[in-house]
C-alpha cells in the first residue's frame, strides 16, 4: 500500500490502482500500440489486453515517492523519443494530479515496434 497524509487524514492506494492509472495514461499517448508483458513460458514479450494494463507497469515506492517503469510497444514510423517524452509527461501529470503522489522517475522501455 502506498499512501499520503493530508489535513483530512490518510489516503492509501494499492499498487494495482496506481498501475492501472499509469497504463491508461500511457495508452492515451499518440504512437503507443499497447503495453507489453514478458511471457514467462517463452520469455518473449507480448501485447497486453486493456483489462490487464497494470502488467506492463512496475512501481517502486520509497518515502512516498514513486519510481515507475513502463514496457510499451509503439507504432512503426513514429519518433520514439517524442513518444517516450509524451508518455513521461502524461504519466507524471496524471499520477501527481489525480492521486496526489510525487513521481520521482518514469522509465519507458520500448519492447517492440508494430507495423
UniProtKB/TrEMBL annotation:
Instruction: Cite the InterPro entries for this sequence.
Output: Asp23
Q: Give the domain of life.
A: Bacteria
Pfam families given for it? Asp23
Question: What family is it from?
Answer: Belongs to the asp23 family.
Which PANTHER family does the entry link to?
ASP23_GLS24 FAMILY ENVELOPE STRESS RESPONSE PROTEIN, HYPOTHETICAL CYTOSOLIC PROTEIN-RELATED
Write the protein's name. Asp23/Gls24 family envelope stress response protein
Q: What is the lineage of its organism?
A: Bacteria, Bacillati, Bacillota, Clostridia, Eubacteriales
Amino acid at each position: 500500500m502506498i499512501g499520503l497524509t493530508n489535513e483530512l487524514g490518510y489516503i492509501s492506494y494499492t499498487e494495482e490502482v496506481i498501475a492501472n492509472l499509469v497504463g491508461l495514461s500511457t495508452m492515451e499517448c499518440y504512437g503507443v500500440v499497447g503495453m507489453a508483458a514478458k511471457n514467462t513460458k517463452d520469455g518473449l514479450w507480448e501485447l497486453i489486453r486493456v483489462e490487464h494494463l497494470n502488467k506492463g507497469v512496475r512501481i517502486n515506492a520509497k518515502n512516498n515517492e514513486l519510481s515507475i517503469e513502463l514496457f510499451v510497444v509503439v507504432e512503426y514510423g513514429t519518433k520514439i523519443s517524442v513518444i517516450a517524452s509524451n508518455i513521461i509527461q502524461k504519466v507524471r501529470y496524471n499520477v501527481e494530479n489525480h492521486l496526489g503522489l510525487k513521481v520521482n522517475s518514469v522509465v519507458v522501455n520500448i519492447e517492440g515496434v508494430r507495423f
